[in-house]
Design a protein that fits this description.
This protein is mainly α. The chain has four helices and two strands, in the order E-H-H-H-E-H. The chain has one domain. The protein is elongated and about 65 Å long.
Length: about 110
């Protein structure tokens, strides 16, 4: 069985995902939190806020990177599909298996 794909739609999806990655990369968590940490001088609140914003920023970074990898892979698949014209169901399944959607081990 052969899989048919709309190359333009695949490329549009890849472009959309790239835009989402860029938007997430633009989220500035730390600047917004600076005044919060300074609100209670002499307490551990500032350090706690700094650590929290660092972890939140790292989480957003990881999300952006994963979305970027999915978009890049879809763009590559569209280019490969366009070159080959047809891809077998098994090849498509193998390409999709390359996406690791399991939760990351944060331990």
């Amino acid at each position: 069985m052969l899989v048919q794909a709309d190359i333009d739609q695949l490329r549009a999806l890849a472009t959309t995902l790239d835009g989402i990655k860029t938007a997430i990369d633009g989220i500035d968590v730390r600047s917004s939190a600076v005044p919060v940490g300074a609100a209670l001088p002499g307490t551990v609140f500032g350090d706690t806020c700094d650590l929290a914003t660092e972890n939140i920023e790292h989480g957003w970074y990881r999300v952006a990177e994963r979305i970027g990898r999915v978009g890049t892979t879809i763009a590559q698949a569209a280019n490969s599909y366009n070159t080959a014209e047809k891809v077998s169901e098994g090849e498509f399944v193998d390409l999709m298996a390359g996406f690791d959607f399991r939760a990351a081990d944060n331990g």
